[in-house]
Amino acid sequence: MAALALSNYTLFSPRPSTSSKAIESTSLVTPSLCFLHNPRHRSRHCYPLLSFSPASQSSTVRRSFLPCFSAQDSVPNVNKEEDDGEDGSKAGDELHGLSLQALINVYREAFLDGDQKTISKVEAKLKIFEREKDGLFQKVSNTSAEITSGKENYIRLQADFDNFRKRSEKERLTVKNNAQKEVIENLLPMIDSFEKARQQIVPQTDKEKKIDVSYQGIYKQFVEVLRSWRISAVAAVGRPFDPSLHEAVAREESQEIKEGIIIQELRRGFLLGERLLRPARVKVSKGPGKKNSPTTNSEKPTEHPATATARVDEH
């Protein structure tokens, strides 16, 4: 090995200069430095171990050692910072997923141990919890406001729907009553014809009586249909005159009937429920006069049609 080293030294060592200056100093040079200072001696298999450099190169060699040493010394520091970062990330990972009570316990232990790094991390985590809490409170308040508004809208819509349902039902009944009124008003002249025929026709033979019985049966069925439609006759004879139900066509004096009382019904009036279809045409009493007049005797025949009408009401 010594022979090999000496051979390497004699092979790669520089020649002495012609000035024959004495070598002022010697220096220990690493193979890498010899390789850099002697580019022409670059070899893949032979590396010198020792080299003597002149004084002019000693300062350069010394300066070249500094960056090498500083770079080598910096390596452990970088590794230390990486270790600290890994430790911090491990501590952050340890805090992740912990409950609030667990964080409080960690904070208490770190405070007692004087671990400022862990304390700052726990405080940051607690601030995150506080922000999350504020966000949840805000969401709860917004949701409560939406629920309240939804309830108010539901109550309002329910009230509107009830009003709409009542209004629709009222309109439906109004349309139905109007349709019934139109149909019944067209049937009222038939009732007048039945009433006139009842007053004028007096059956004498058996055949005429049979016809009259059939005729009255048809009229009775017709009256039952009208009653099923809630149609009723307006009371007139013997009742006080009511302008909302009666239509006065004549006034006569009467010794027996008071003033304002209806003494005769000339045309029947009808009601659809409580709604007036047609007012009754009547003759109203003026009450007794000051002197007896011949017209008092003429009032007696007028009572017979009223009597006949009452009989029809009974049927």
UniProtKB/TrEMBL annotation:
<keyword id="KW-0346">Stress response</keyword>
<keyword id="KW-0963">Cytoplasm</keyword>
<dbReference type="InterPro" id="IPR000740">
    <property type="entry name" value="GrpE"/>
</dbReference>
<keyword id="KW-0143">Chaperone</keyword>
<dbReference type="Pfam" id="PF01025">
    <property type="entry name" value="GrpE"/>
</dbReference>
<dbReference type="GO" id="GO:0000774">
    <property type="term" value="F:adenyl-nucleotide exchange factor activity"/>
</dbReference>
<comment type="subunit">
    <text>Homodimer.</text>
</comment>
<dbReference type="GO" id="GO:0042803">
    <property type="term" value="F:protein homodimerization activity"/>
</dbReference>
<feature type="coiled-coil region">
    <location>
        <begin position="112"/>
        <end position="139"/>
    </location>
</feature>
<dbReference type="GO" id="GO:0009507">
    <property type="term" value="C:chloroplast"/>
</dbReference>
<keyword id="KW-0175">Coiled coil</keyword>
<protein>
    <recommendedName>
        <fullName>GrpE protein homolog</fullName>
    </recommendedName>
</protein>
<feature type="region of interest" description="Disordered">
    <location>
        <begin position="282"/>
        <end position="315"/>
    </location>
</feature>
<dbReference type="GO" id="GO:0006457">
    <property type="term" value="P:protein folding"/>
</dbReference>
<dbReference type="GO" id="GO:0051087">
    <property type="term" value="F:protein-folding chaperone binding"/>
</dbReference>
<dbReference type="GO" id="GO:0051082">
    <property type="term" value="F:unfolded protein binding"/>
</dbReference>
